[in-house]
Design goal:
The chain has a single domain, classed as Jelly Rolls (Sandwich). 0% of the residues lie in helices and 47% in strands. It has no helices and 16 strands. Strand 8 and strand 9 form a beta hairpin. It is globular. The two termini are 18 Å apart.
Length: 219
């Protein structure tokens, strides 16, 4: 992590904060066949990723993250999403470790409202309670064939996750101001976790692309 520069002694000038993106590290998780990449831009990143999935007992994806401790509230706008598969996933990841089978919670968006198993709409929560455990999902209450309760809204598909102790709450928005509670989960993750943007292709041989913008965080 790169610390904010300190003012020169006697200069009387305030310190100039390092851009938030400079505090983050990116890497592939789970050794995907195609290497991913993350390009920092103002208030966000352009991410490319391979990977079989973030699901079951182990994950493959690209992750840009920093460590956070205690309670927090993070949000980001997914501006665009070019999938490689119906189940390509982009979202906010909270993860105990960089191991492929780590416990985690992810609030994600898909690229469209196409029906997917238990989900009609673009938003979903998934989580793994312990290292090596199976993933579980939290889906919208509204199921097909009704209109989606949480539809895709690119370039304004907003994601937000707030942590208070072991309670994680996920909110969706189309303007970054008015938030709707999507769902919540009690999950006993470690106090110090890796937090950031995650993308998986779900097609090991084809990369997915997503642009994340307007990332904010608060303790």
């Amino acid at each position: 992590m790169i610390p904010s520069p300190k003012p020169t002694a006697g200069s009387g000038s305030p310190s100039v904060p390092v851009p938030l993106s400079a505090l983050f590290t990116n890497r592939d998780i789970g050794s995907p066949q195609l290497a991913g990449a993350a390009k920092p831009v103002e208030k966000g990143w352009d991410i490319t990723a391979g990977g079989a999935d973030i699901w079951n007992r182990a994950d493959q994806f690209h992750f840009i993250f920093r460590e956070m401790s205690g309670d927090f509230d993070v949000a980001v706008r997914v501006e665009s999403f070019t999938p490689a598969h119906l189940y390509s996933k982009a979202g906010l990841m909270i993860r105990e470790s960089l191991d492929a089978d780590s416990a985690h919670l992810m609030f994600l968006v898909f690229s469209s409202d196409a029906p997917r198993n238990n989900n009609l709409g673009a938003y979903e929560i998934q989580f793994r309670t312990a290292a090596g455990a199976d993933c579980q999902g939290i889906y919208p209450a509204v199921r097909p064939p009704a209109p989606p309760e949480f539809p895709a809204a690119y370039p304004n598909s907003w994601l937000r996750v707030a942590r208070h102790g072991n309670q994680f709450s996920a909110f969706a928005s189309t303007d970054g101001k008015t938030w709707r509670l999507f769902g919540g989960q009690v999950l006993p993750l470690a106090s110090k976790v890796k937090v950031g943007a995650a993308l998986t292709s779900h097609n090991p041989e084809v990369a997915a692309h997503a642009t994340f913008r307007d990332y904010t965080e608060a303790n």
